[in-house]
Design a protein that fits this description.
Blueprint: H1 21-30, H2 41-47, H3 67-81
């Protein structure tokens, strides 16, 4: 049966994700077969025994990928300048 999951257990991951360079390099070297198939770098780090930490971020920390995103970012920045 397919249904909508309970959302109190879900997190939205934002980019960029940050890792210690040596840990990420070791994870990539250990799992080259997974490159291009995993959802993000955190999967590689976890598969290598690393711990991925979550940090809350404010909603205005948005990802700018479209012209509308850029306009929203400009408006937010303009508010800070006032």
């Amino acid at each position: 049966m397919i249904r909508t999951p309970e959302r109190d257990h879900l997190w939205a991951a934002q980019t960029p994700q940050a890792f210690r360079a040596d840990a990420l390099r070791a994870s990539i070297a250990e799992h080259p077969d997974l490159l291009g198939t995993v959802s993000d770098d955190s999967v590689l780090v976890e598969r290598s025994g690393g711990e991925v930490l979550l940090h809350a971020s404010p909603p205005e920390n948005l990802k700018v990928t479209t012209p509308l995103d850029m306009r929203l970012a400009e408006l937010l920045l303009a508010e800070r300048a006032e």
